Amino acid sequence: MASHGVEPLDKRHDRSVFSCGTEALDRYLKQQARQDADKRVAAAFVLVVPTASQVLGYYTLSASTITADELPPELARKIPRYPQLPVVLLGRLVVDTTLKGCGQGEFLLMDALHRSLDAASMVGAIAVLVEAKNASAETFYRHFGFTPLQGQPARLFLSMKTVASLFG
Ligand SMILES: CC(C)(COP(=O)(O)OP(=O)(O)OC[C@H]1O[C@@H](n2cnc3c(N)ncnc32)[C@H](O)[C@@H]1OP(=O)(O)O)[C@@H](O)C(=O)NCCC(=O)NCCS
C-alpha cells in the first residue's frame, strides 16, 4: 500500500467518491467542510496518497471550552478554577470504508493529536476533546486512552499532558 499523508483540505481534493458508511459524515465532507474551513469554524485535514487527490479519510479541529466541573474531580483539583477551560475539539475522524481496519484511523488520530499539541503550544489548551457520534466511535477513542467527561459518556477527553507524553 502506498504511504499516506495528511494535509489541510483545499479545493484540489476530490471528495466525490468518499464513503464511510455514515451518510451525515460523508455529506459533511462533501458539502460543508470547505465552507467551515474558509470561515474558520473548523479546520479540516484529509488523508490522501501523495500525488493523488482522492480523499480517503478526514478529521476536523476547532477551539472549544469545557468547565472545570465537567472534569473528573481528581483532575479538576489540579487545574486553576477559571470559569471556562480551553480545549481542542476533534469534531470528526473518519476513514473511507475501503480502508477500515488497516491502521489509517490510528494514523489520522495520531496526526490530529500531534497538530493539537502544536496548537496548544501557541494558544493554550488543556486537553483534546472528542464528541463520539456512536458507540463504535466511543470504544475507538477509549481504546486510545480517552476518558469521558463527568456524566457525558459520548464526550471524551485526553489531557494535553498525556498527548505530549505520546510524542516524547
Ligand atoms: C472509527 C474509525 C475511524 C476507525 O478507523 P480504522 O482505520 O478502522 O481503525 P484502525 O485500523 O486504525 O484501528 C486502530 C486500532 O483501533 C482499534 N479499533 C478500531 N476501531 C475500533 C472501535 N470501533 N472500537 C474499538 N477499537 C477500535 C483497532 O482494533 C486497532 O487496535 P490495535 O492497534 O490494538 O490492533 C473508522 O471505523 C470510521 O471511520 N468509522 C466511521 C466514522 C466514525 O464513527 N468516526 C468516529 C467519530 S466521528
Bound molecules: coenzyme A
Order of helices and strands: EHEEHEHEHEEH
What's the total count of β strands?
Answer: 7
Broad structural category: alpha+beta
Helix content: 25-40%
Distance between the first and last residues' Cα: 28 Å
In the CATH hierarchy, the architecture is 3-Layer(aba) Sandwich
The CATH topology corresponds to Aminopeptidase
The biggest beta sheet is recorded as: 7 strands, mixed
SSE blueprint:
Blueprint: E1 5-8, H1 23-38, E2 43-48, E3 57-66, H2 73-76, E4 85-95, H3 104-123, E5 127-131, H4 135-143, E6 147-149, E7 152-159, H5 160-166
Parallel strand pairs: 4-5
Antiparallel strand pairs: 1-2, 2-3, 3-4, 5-7, 6-7
The structure holds coenzyme A.
